[in-house]
Amino acid sequence: MTQPTLTRSWVASANGHTDFPLQNLPLGVFSINGGAPRSGVAIGDSILDLHAAIDEFSGDARRAVEATAGGQLNAFFELGRGPRVALRERLLELLAEGSPLQTREAQVLHRAADCRMHVPAQINDYTDFYVGIEHAQNVGKLFRPDNPLLPNYKYVPIGYHGRASTIRASGADVRRPKGQTLPAGQTEPTFGPCARLDYELELGIWIGQGNEMGDSIAIGDAADHIAGFCLLNDWSARDIQAWEYQPLGPFLSKSFITTISPWVVTVEALEPFRTAQPARPEGDPQPLSYLLDKRDQAAGALDIELEVLLTTAAMREQNLPAFRLALSNSLHMYWTVAQLVAHHSVNGCQLQAGDLFGSGTLSGPQAGQFGSLLEMTEGGKKAVELPSGEVRKFLEDGDEIILRARCRREGFASIGFGECRGTVVAAR
Fold first, then answer.
1. What SS3 state is found at 237?
2. Which of 25, 150, 219, 391 has the CB geometry, 3.0–4.6 Å to 293, for a possible disulfide?
3. What is the distance between the alpha carbons of residues 18 and 44, in angstroms, rounded to a whole number?
4. Is 130 annotated as a binding residue?
């Protein structure tokens, strides 16, 4: 499917919109004035109410709209690629200039600023991976300078099972967590609020059609089981994490909240931005056969620019713009998304429509590309200087982290993901 680069929308704000031009059309769940959640499509500064416009759809496209009923997209994800493509093609017709749907604008379109966004699906399971190799190396150097990557990293897509119940849509407050920490120089832990709160810049991956328990998804088929993408902030309590993570890995340090951008950017919208998976460095092992597919290696990566910004309470009082902490890219993923799906299911684990994967922190190799404060400050040794005169080693109450993403390619309209925001508030 090619992107309709020359087509304009009758929704004026969509034409040239930084995130949601006609070429994007992400799906999400919204509500108005405390009403029931409903499904919609982002178009410029507006949201198309799918069910208000349902009589404009037929065939597979109508099946897709019907599957979005009830304020959750799980049934829509389960339908797979065919109905999803049919819906997209019909939306392109309905929202293009000259469409008769414009006469029904007041019935089917809502100002996004008047709407509240929700988590778009019932997430039964959430798995966070660790596929940003630059992040893995940066963090590894802090703790194992002579051996930053453990031997399994280049053979196995490392991941852990996260907490689905605390995933929230952009804008939710981030309550500073409490837990056990081991203060420097002491032999016994103390209990209290986290003092080393951090963010992590990640992509979220929405699973479409799942698999039966006991069956695996072949690497050549894995891409067909991906419905779309979002931004994901894997908030992390570094001091709690340092005390608890051995021998089983993160627990309370990661489970207090995970923030996602609320719009699902579909696989089809991202097609123009697919590219070859970056070649592995010379000497790195080839993936085992169940993780290796020529088509996936040729076009299984995505070129998505990823940005992290910070505002503090003092910066907002002074009307200072958000300060960019990092600019990175999804091409720093050591494993493709299809490889994550294939590996997750190879033991017979059942994936279900609406499951969410986190990519892991997507840092680049250079300063200005790090996806966490842990890396930027070298574990708290160096402070980040802000335009307000403040400094940060880790996040303080009142700090707001904003994640953004942008896809660009010559000859195609650029698209974005919307924002993934969270403001830190004091522990209770």
1. strand
2. 219
3. 8
4. yes
How far is Cα 41 from Cα 120, in angstroms, rounded to an integer? 11
Q: How far apart are CA 180 and CA 420, in angstroms?
A: 28
Question: Would the annotation count 3 as a binding residue?
Answer: no
Q: In sequence order, what are the beta bridge partners of 358? A: 128, 204
| Domain at 126-425: CATH architecture | Alpha-Beta Complex (3.90)
Q: Is 176 marked as binding a ligand?
A: no
Burial profile 3-33: b = 16 or more Cβ within 10 angstroms, e = fewer: beeebbbbbeebeebebbbbbbbbbbbbeee
Q: Name every residue whose Cβ is closer than 8 Å to that of residue 184 and which is 6 or more positions away in sequence.
A: none
Average pLDDT over residues 173-180: 98
The answer to whether the beta carbons of residues 262 and 169 sit under 8 Å apart is yes
Domain boundaries, the chain: 12-117, 126-425
Phi, psi of 117 (to 5 degrees): -95, 150
Q: List residues bridging with 404 in a β-sheet.
A: 307
Q: Tell me: the pLDDT tens digits for 315-363?
A: 999 999 999 999 999 999 999 999 999 999 999 999 999 999 999 999 9
- Summarize pLDDT for 240-264 with one digit per residue, the tens: 999 999 899 999 999 999 999 999 9
β-sheet bridge partners, residue 415 = 407
